[in-house]
Design brief:
single chain; 192 residues; alpha/beta; Rossmann fold; 42% helix
């Protein structure tokens, strides 16, 4: 069974992303398409990337334990659902830094995006920029996405999603991620 990680791309105090990531985790698990795990960047306090060589060159031989643990964790997955806020028309610095810490660990795997913001566009501008970064990491960004607008209003006080159309969109994302995950897993297995 494919292993998919839901990456929570914000570490802010009081972040709305926790509700979004838990909703994604619950719905993706319920779809029974793959094994799903939450990877919260708050659990990996990565420093800004300052290694002497690029991640493409050193292949995970990090000086810091937290960096080693993070890249080992992401290497375990067959694909990712990246949950990203939109900050100033882009994604968070902590998410960019996390992506910069790996290379081979990300490569040849699918990436799906669930974005959120307080405004009407639901983080779509952040995803536009994020797609360019994951392509450079040789990931395959899938077309289906979920952009949760008005994030403060669409979750109830217990943190449950209240808008069913988002559930439908997420299910479409999960199905497309499964297709790409299977295809790229087969391709990685066939490549020496």
């Amino acid at each position: 069974m494919l292993s998919i990680q839901v990456i929570l791309g914000s570490t802010r105090k009081g972040r709305r992303g926790e509700n979004v990531a838990r909703w994604v985790l619950d719905r993706a698990t319920a779809a029974n398409e793959f094994q799903v795990e939450l990877v919260d960047l708050a659990d990996y306090p990565l420093p800004f990337y300052e290694e002497e060589t690029s991640p493409a060159m050193h292949r995970g031989n990090y000086v810091l334990d937290v960096s080693r643990r993070f890249v080992q964790k992401i290497a375990e997955a067959d694909g990712y659902i990246i949950v990203t806020p939109e900050y100033n028309h882009s994604f968070s610095a902590v998410l960019k830094n996390a992506l910069d810490h790996g290379y081979h660990e990300w490569s040849n795997k699918p990436a799906a995006f669930v974005s959120y913001s307080g405004g009407a566009v639901g983080g779509a501008r952040a995803v536009e920029q994020l797609r360019l970064v994951v392509i450079e990491l040789q990931m395959a960004p899938i077309r289906e996405g979920v952009h949760v607008g008005g994030v403060r209003q669409v979750f109830d006080e217990q943190g449950h999603m209240t808008v069913t159309t988002y559930d439908d969109r997420l299910l479409a994302l999960v199905r497309q991620l499964r297709w790409w995950g299977d295809a790229l897993q087969a391709a990685r297995s066939a490549t020496p």
